[in-house]
Amino acid sequence: KAIKPIPGPPGLPLVGNIFDIDLVTPLKTLEGFADQYGPIYKLSLGGKELLVLSSWELIHECCDEKRFAKQVAGGLEQVRNGVGDGLFTAYTGEENWGIAHRILIPAFGPLTIRGMFDEMTDLANQLALKWARLPSGASVDASEDFTRLTLDTIALCAMGARFNSFYTENQHPFVDAMVDFLIESGNRGRRLPAMNMIPTRASEAYFKDIDLLKRVSYDLLKERRDTPSDKKDLLNAMINGKDPQTGRGLTDELIVNNMITFLIAGHETTSGTLAFTMYNLLRNPQTYKKLQEEIDRVVGREPVNLEHLAKLPYTNAVLRETLRLSSPITAIGVRPHPFDNHEDPILINGQYQVGHDQSILLLVKKMHKDPAVYGSDAEEFKPERMLDEPFNKLPPDAWKPFGNGMRACIGRPFAWQEMLIVMAVLFQNFDFYMADSGYQLSIKQNLTIKPKDFRLKSKLRHGLT
Ligand code: HEM
């Protein structure tokens, strides 16, 4: 094939396309450019070039871990200010990633996750109790309440900490610090590096937030060391685990980096998925009905248990389809593998030439609507296409809400069990309505996306189970 130029929007001198990017919802700009310039285009951001891919064919090629590797850049690189070489933000090849990964893989295995069932259910029941006690006609912001739930769940299951978000008017100070830290990391990622060196009120608050995140985490670690328990949670796995390959354990600093990482990575993604799931179901009453029928048939009025969770194929499909249309992590960053010898020149699709350190953004959420894979109804919410049989036959890399290869989500089984429990507890006990039937989906984007101002009303179907 002949080498082709890569299209892209024209930019201004020096700053390039920086001012083209919507500050509130950058995703809108990226998807809009994909519609305009096609499945591969380039942006210039303050002297750095970013390639944005959005078709299955191109993204599939860049998921080949022999040729490409995760790149930590932009807002994600700024998150390193708080969590350094924690699993999510570790650079490719950083030694501590391998040590933590090998120690933590068994801790996220099916056995340990099943062991977290009671605690997960306890918190799902707290959410149900809160909703059951709301005055009649009251509504809740779905994203906010699901965030309380998922944050409490990861804190309790990972490190035995109770944030008690449902019992307090104000959130735990850790939560505010974390939310502000993430927002400012995103802002810093969009600024020119020199601008981040200037001390401002925002940067002062940013580093204060980081101090608080670390202090709370060090205190939790110290508490566990002072009063050890044999709880099978992530904190104990990190304190006691030895890497089978190097024989090394995790330093306190690395434990803290990963504790904060789990709290960050483990809550926004899961709460966003739950909120989008409720939105999708309420917009598609026939899928809502099917899901509730499945839960009534399998769980009925019994307290939810582990065996129920294995028998909910339609609920699984609803979650998968939601993650397809509304992947909370909308894109992942890769670059040509830094440690491998590459063919020269490096070509994508045999016709687009890229540099050895080219930043490439895989716009997974857009790829999930590629008609070449999902057909002409790709934009529609149809859980039937995500039942096991069609799902298992999807082309490789066509469904990627959990990321790629070695650097894919370690918390996937955790999130999945948690989401199934929540769906079962909620639909067993409540009927749901949109608080505003004319609500138009609008998106709040931080490092992840979630529905904005989406309010739900719930009505108990019977006494709480
Ligand atoms: C990585 C999605 C829940 C912990 C990732 C990545 C994605 C993702 C896309 C790769 C990011 C990249 O390549 O830059 C999700 C979604 C979730 C979810 C959609 C829920 C529906 C969780 C939970 C935890 C967690 C509950 C923790 C308990 C992590 C960690 C990584 C990661 C530690 C980094 C893995 C590594 O690079 O070694 N997740 N995640 N995630 N996720 Fe999740």
UniProtKB/TrEMBL annotation:
It comes from the Eukaryota. Keywords: Electron transport, FAD, Flavoprotein, FMN, Heme, Iron, Metal-binding, Monooxygenase, NADP, Oxidoreductase, Transport. The keyword Electron transport applies. Heme binds at C409. One of its GO terms (molecular function) is flavin adenine dinucleotide binding. One of its GO terms (cellular component) is cytosol. In the N-terminal section; belongs to the cytochrome P450 family. This is Bifunctional cytochrome P450/NADPH--P450 reductase. The chain holds residues 48 to 512 of 1119 of the full protein.
